[in-house]
Design goal:
This protein is α/β, with parallel strands linked by helices and about 250 residues long. Helices cover about 30% and strands about 25% of the residues. It is built from eight helices and twelve strands. The longest helix is centred in the C-terminal third of the chain and has 15 residues, at about 230-245. The chain is elongated, with a radius of gyration of 19 Å. The two termini are about 20 Å apart.
């Protein structure tokens, strides 16, 4: 039986394990998807060594960047982004080759593109982690100008408390790439001037649990278009499967 899985910590919110095991059952595929909850990235080597039938992995928080140093090969796109969320595991004799890819960028781009209007020219990206790098790459590929928003003073970022209503009008696509508002902390949301949002604002939250985060709710009340991360997850999972099974 082929094994696929997810590495990250913690994994209580994992979507992939249910999605893939249902897919395997429905399509009669002799495979199993497992959550590998590893407190340190160094434990990846143990996961690989103890699972000889492992064919592929997804990577989630907090290892999308840290995992790169463990890979034998990284796709040009994933190297440019600087984050990995799919690993193809290839067995050649006694050796194991690990190839890294990024399906987040494909899932996100395919999901947001139909919702973009001609007046969507600039975007705020909330957060600076691995997912935000894929989102930045995707938005730029669609022709948008981007700025990262961080809680901390970092080069090339603006801080939440410095955002003005005018910024919200100008950067009218806002993508939340942070865990702020994720269950069980669904009473929280990023600190933004929501009152400046209107029908020209597009809010995209990578979170999918709850279905409507407080970030989305507060934007929707101002007339904004709001989207959660479920469609992106489905699209990137589809791409992951294609990567693992390409000839």
């Amino acid at each position: 039986m082929d094994i696929y899985g997810l590495i990250g910590y913690p994994l209580g919110h994992s979507f992939s394990v249910g999605y893939f095991n249902e897919k395997f059952q429905n399509e009669g595929i002799d495979a199993k998807y497992v959550n590998f909850e590893i407190p340190q990235i160094e434990m990846l080597e143990e996961v690989i060594a103890s699972n000889p039938d492992l064919k592929g992995l997804n990577v989630t928080i907090p290892y999308k960047e840290k995992v790169i140093s463990y890979l034998d090969n990284v796709s040009p796109e994933a190297r440019t982004i600087g984050a990995i969320n799919v690993i193809r595991v290839i067995h050649k004799g006694r050796s194991v080759i690990l190839k890294g890819y990024n399906s987040d960028v494909i899932g996100f781009t395919q999901s947001i593109e139909p919702r973009l209007e001609p007046y969507h020219k600039k975007a705020l990206i909330l957060g600076t982690g691995g997912a935000s790098k894929a989102v930045n790459y995707g938005l730029k590929s669609l022709g948008l100008e981007t700025v990262f928003v961080s809680r901390y003073e970092r080069p090339g970022t603006i801080q939440y408390e410095k955002l003005t209503p005018d910024d919200i009008k100008e950067y009218n696509v806002i993508v939340n790439c942070t865990p702020c508002g994720m269950y069980p902390h669904s009473n929280k949301c990023p600190n933004l001037p929501y009152e400046a949002m209107d029908s020209h604002t597009l809010l995209y939250d990578l979170i999918y649990n709850p279905d409507e985060t407080l970030f989305m709710y507060k934007g929707r009340k101002q007339g904004a278009t709001v989207v959660n991360g479920l469609e992106m997850l489905l699209l990137q999972a589809f791409v992951s499967w294609e990567i693992w099974n390409e000839e």
